[in-house]
């Protein structure tokens, strides 16, 4: 017999290993990560396209596990507005991907209408090189 609550908890715990949602609670852990590369998906979590974007984002995260920390940033949270301004993004430009190298603050931003695993790979590989 499957316990829905336990199954949901299991999925959420394992989801965090691939994609971490950025918020005031997780911010410290994200900043203290041993990974020097972060890839942010900056998007509206309320969008009808959100579940499909996350599916593709998680699939790409699997490919870069241990190399790039994949982070979801909800553009609807007021507390995330400083991140948008850091990357010089307006809500009208979202969704967007932002890759960031922590030691030297080097970063790149890509505004996207549709997200695909291939597009994520191209963006990550170009930045890593």
What does this structure look like?
The structure is a single chain. This protein has 129 residues and is α/β, with parallel strands linked by helices. The chain has one domain (4-128): 3-Layer(aba) Sandwich (Glutaredoxin). Helix content is 40%, strand content 22%. It is built from 5 helices and 5 strands. The protein is globular. The N and C termini lie far apart (48 Å). The model has no long low-confidence stretch (mean pLDDT 88).
Give the topology.
Elements: H1 4-18, E1 19-21, H2 27-31, E2 37-43, H3 50-63, E3 68-74, H4 81-86, E4 96-101, E5 106-111, H5 117-128
Parallel strand pairs: 1-3, 2-3
Antiparallel strand pairs: 2-4, 4-5
Helix pairs in contact: 3-5
Brief digest:
The protein has helices at 4-18, 27-31, 50-63, 81-86, 117-128; strands spanning 19-21, 37-43, 68-74, 96-101, 106-111.
CATH-derived topology: Glutaredoxin
Instruction: Tell me the number of strands.
Output: 5
SS content category? alpha/beta
The CA-CA distance between the termini, in Å, is 48 Å
Average the pLDDT over all residues and give the rounded result: 88
Largest sheet properties: 5 strands, mixed
> Can you tell me the overall shape?
globular
**Strand portion:** 15-25%
The side-by-side strand order for the widest beta sheet comes to 1-3-2-4-5
Count of alpha and pi helical runs? 5
Low-confidence stretches: none
**CATH architecture call:** 3-Layer(aba) Sandwich
Helix content: 40-55%
Instruction: Encode the helix/strand succession as letters.
Output: HEHEHEHEEH
- Radius of gyration, in Å, reads 15 Å
Number of domains: 1
The level-1 CATH class:
Alpha Beta
CATH superfamily: Glutaredoxin
Family: Belongs to the protein disulfide isomerase family.
Organism: Sitta europaea (Eurasian nuthatch)
Protein name: ERP27 protein
GO biological process, one term: response to endoplasmic reticulum stress
